Amino acid sequence: MAGGLGRENKLINVHFYKPTGFTSQSPLLIVIPGAGRNSDDYRNAWLEVACRKGILVAALGYPEETYNFAAYQMGGVVKDLMLNNPKFVRTGPNARILRLRDEDIQMRPEPDSNNWIFFDFDRVFDLLVKITGSKRSGYDIFGHSAGGQVLHRLALFHPDSKADRIVAANAGFYTLPSLPEPPPSGMMGTGIDKEQLANILSAPLTILLGEEDNSDAAGGTLLHTPVIDKQGPNRLARGRNFFRTGSNLAKAEKLKFGWKLQTVPRTGHDFVAMTNAAARLLYP
């Protein structure tokens, strides 16, 4: 399908599965892959649950050649991204870290929401409703690793989406709901203001964390900079810090807090295991 307004030529691959048991009342699930953008694999990880529960699954593939880190992991809320003097270190068979000085990260906030990808998800949902005759008014959405980065930012930057439940799993680092702090770790300059905090902090967001995703060797690529490392040394700690930051802000501002935090025992940076955990959470 076409990309969003002004980027229609940047196509999105939609790998979907409609089980025979699907009805007009069946759930619709959108899945956001990790940095490999392997939407077919992420769709396939949901097939057993989709068949058993009658769920339509649509996994979105954003090609890396047209959606770079700023456009994908960061959701498009920054632009003109440059990473100078990157240092990659292999830390395990399927794991590495990227070390940078904060001053070597160059980017500018993107306040034009037309350049954010978060509105794509409602468009995909509306298209699925149209072609399947679904009577659902909202969808569930799950993302792992880079997809977890995308989805916690969905809750921050587009909390009024049609998503009924947002599950962000094993994100590498987080944008915090901090208006005075610039990206990538804050929201300054993106057009988000204090009036929107109530919707952001009440968003139906679940942070899902593998309890063994707690080291540089756990898998994937983990970013380390002095500022990002203030969130914690690993994905488990950073996810807990993000949740705690939101909870503390809601208390300070006397706002309703709708986020949830759940950890998965004996699980690291494994998208299949985290998919199974999300399935148990969403469709018990």
How do the strands and helices of this protein lay out in sequence?
Elements: E1 13-17, E2 28-32, H1 39-44, H2 47-53, E3 56-61, E4 78-83, E5 87-92, E6 95-99, E7 105-109, H3 118-132, E8 139-144, H4 146-157, E9 163-169, H5 197-201, E10 205-210, E11 220-224, H6 235-253, E12 260-264, H7 271-282
Parallel strand pairs: 2-3, 2-8, 6-11, 8-9, 9-10, 10-12
Antiparallel strand pairs: 1-3, 4-7, 5-6
Structural account:
27% of the residues lie in helices and 24% in strands. It is an alpha/beta fold. The chain has one domain: Rossmann fold (3-Layer(aba) Sandwich), CATH 3.40.50. β5 (87-92) and β6 form a beta hairpin. The protein is globular. The model has no long low-confidence stretch (mean pLDDT 97).
Question: Which band does the percent of strand residues land in?
Answer: 15-25%
Number of distinct helices: 7
Global Rg: 18 Å
CATH architecture: 3-Layer(aba) Sandwich
CATH overall fold name: Rossmann fold
Strand order of the largest sheet: 1-3-2-8-9-10-12
The run of helices and strands is EEHHEEEEEHEHEHEEHEH
Poorly predicted ranges = none
Q: SS-based structural class?
A: alpha/beta
What is this entry, summarized?
Helix content is about 25%, strand content about 25%. By secondary structure, the chain is α/β, with parallel strands linked by helices.
Keywords:
seven-stranded mixed beta sheet, Rossmann fold, globular, 284 residues, 7 helices, alpha/beta, 12 strands, three-stranded mixed beta sheet
